[in-house]
Amino acid sequence: MNPQYFVEILSRAGDVLERHPVAALPIRIGRAYDNHIIVSDPHVAAHHARVDQAQNGGLILRDLDTRNGLVYKRKRLREVALDGDTIVRLGHTSLRVRARNHAVAAELADSTNHLWEGWLPAMIGLLLMAAQALFSQWLGQTQKVEPLTYLVQVATQLGILLLWSGAWALTNRLFSGQARFGRHVFIAAGGMVVSEAWYLVSIYLANAFSLEFFTRYNNHFDIAIFATMLFFHLATISPRHSKRIFLIMFLLALVGSCLSLVNNYQRHDRLVNELYMGEILPPSVRQSRDYSLDEFINSARKLQPKLDKTRTENMSENQGAGLLDVLPGQSSEN
Amino acid sequence: MSLIKTSTGGKGSFKNLSACASLVMLGLWFSASIAQPSTSTISESPDVSQSAAPPSSTAQTLYAAASKDLLQLRILLKNGRSQSSTGSGFLIGTGDLVVTNYHVVSRLALEPETYTGEYVDTDGRRGSIELIAVDVLRDLAVVRVDRHGHDFFKLPETLTQLHQGQNLYSLGNPLDLGFAISEGTYNGISSRGFSDQLMFTGALNPGMSGGPNITAQGEVAGVNVSHRRDGELVSFLVPAHYVQQLLDSAREQNQAPEDFKSIIGEQLLMHQQIMADHLLNEPLPSKTLGNYKIPVRESEQLRCWGSSDTNPKSTYTTHAIQCGMESVIYVSDNVRTGSLSFNHQLINSKENHALRFSRVASNFFRGQIWSYHKGEEHTGQQCTEEFITNGDLPLRAVLCATAYRKFEGLYNFTLLTITMNGELTALKSLYNIDGVSYENGLKIAQGFLQAVGHKTDADEPALITTPESNLNPATGDNEAGVEGSDSDNRARQTDIPQESTEVITE
């Protein structure tokens, strides 16, 4: 038998779920077992539709007087002319019919780095993460501790890394058939290392060149690093959509930054994260000049108008709160 | 500068007198049984009470005579008239003016739209009160009532001198339980506060504030104001001559001022000017801490304590000197001002790694200043931060200020600095300057910034290197039984936050 036609049952996303070769027209479609194509969908009639040769030589799908009929582009039709890309819905089942001479599109360029898979990136990711855990534990240590503490710290961080990467690998398997666990491990570990490195660099910039901007708004840089990490995770799952993913991540990062600004403004009446920079490096890293005492006092003098302006603000809304202070529970007996 | 001169007796007599000081409290309910001598109240020491004059008789006579002019003052919520706080007061001469503490009536001064006041006399009669004058620095106030005094409490032009050990009697209504008189002794002048206070070794309890303290002859010696929570029977009185000054100015004015906030603001501004001039008129004395020269100004008002942490498990050691005032100006329950405090912390690394030590130093530097912009009393902090040099040392400095919402022209300043001399030593300093004008705040901050530097040979070592000098005279008495080697440790432990030690007696 030499099939002339193929009936393809599609998922909602357009992927082919089943492909049925058919030798000749007409093709009967339905739930009953005397059809050519048997569809196991309770919303499909026993004898639902039939594919025939149209007068112009193409194919045509006809409804056999069923309850749910044929739907094409959201419209219910008695009959639908089929070219290879016409997707018709019967009940809950979408399908298309292609002849054997249907022309397919050219193949995609392979952008996946197949060498960077499996054990190599996984081991490098784990090593990076372990190094980062050891370094940050060592740097922040203020008490003499047992070596075991380091081990616990490393094990904890590696455990979290494996859980995180595992979740991504599972998602990857679900959507594109491969887990690509090793690459997810590498991406997550890379994100952590970049974040730690940026932290040190930002402190250096602030201390050496008075570029306190970088520490004042450090959470926005963290959001950017996190969004980049998510971008790589998602692009690993679906390399074809990397442009769209990039755009979505960019917008999400923007929203996250704005929310953090709004939150700071509401809670502290300022946009920056901290009242002042708390991270100090030895004076030997200082590259820019130190300011004089007079310059410092003069810049403090400029704060007075701001204070005087806010002094009388918000007072009216606080008057109401003042009354609450003296409810019976508060009144003392002395 | 005080009008009351006192003989400063020897330390031995001080101890004996305070040990012998007996306390007699006669409640209102006892006054009904005056006909029968109430020996039961003092029966624990019959040999003392029956030799010579019974100690209760003076208090008994005084209470009987004073009770007509003794009042309890109650602050009430206008809405519902439930009481929110109580204190005491007394009528002067034959007039209608009543002297009390500012802190008893502070709510009338600051929130007249929410609070009102009334008096209750020893017979339970009530009447309204009207606030006439306040002296927030000395914690005094004058109110007018709808009755006249019986000329018991008098303030003559020249006050008689008090002598240490002399019996004094405080009257008032402790804890709203009923009127009472408590006996104690006069023990000199305490200069720890902004203005002098009399030390009274006798019981003052909340509710007695604003009540009179009189001599056995019935002359007003002072006004009950506070007691030390960490001591026994260590109480304080506002000297009578300050009462005279306030009464004189109250009599001059015909009407009660409408807005007390601005009056209080002016008094605070005047006070801070005097304090700032005093602080700035000479260069700040300095001491050494490690290799640094640090500004440490010690005086009667500003007390310094040293402490150190040399935990063998830590990768660093710290040595600290903290200086602060023991008293603050009470403005309201939420606002106490006028205090100056600073602490210097020297952090030494035990290791040899600069980056790691910088993280330790950052831990000390971070999170030292808080800002709350929705506060009812203060604005949020406005800060400026920079790497500066004062000619001697490179410093990272943060200077923050908040404004008082209710008092124009008053600010709190916080100055935080850290300097790392070499890579393995850091000096962190935190200065709090409360209730000053903007200019004075900047000047004081500048003074502190100029005073810190490298140690030179001429500098006097700080407290921390000579721990035997930091014994607290106030606790020295309690430490008597402790061995010398232990005592400096004990002194450090008693160095609890200064604000909690003194209790205002409402």
Helix content of chain B: 10-25%
Number of domains of chain B: 2
Distance between the termini of chain B: 28 Å
Write down the CATH class of the largest domain in chain B. Mainly Beta
Q: What is the CATH topology assignment of the largest domain in chain B? A: Thrombin, subunit H
The geometry of chain B reads as: elongated
| Radius of gyration of CA atoms of chain A, rounded to a whole number | 33 Å
Counting copies of identical and different chains, the oligomeric state is heterodimer
Shape of chain A: elongated
**Number of discrete domains of chain A:** 2
Q: Indicate the structural class of chain B.
A: alpha+beta
Please tell me the overall pLDDT of chain B. Answer: 79
Q: What is the tally of helical segments of chain A?
A: 9
* Residue share in helix of chain A: 40-55%
Largest sheet of chain A: 6 strands, antiparallel
Q: Provide a count of the helices of chain B.
A: 11
Q: Count all strands of chain A and give the number.
A: 12
The radius of gyration of chain B is 25 Å
Largest sheet, spatial ordering of strands of chain B? 15-16-19-23-22-21-20
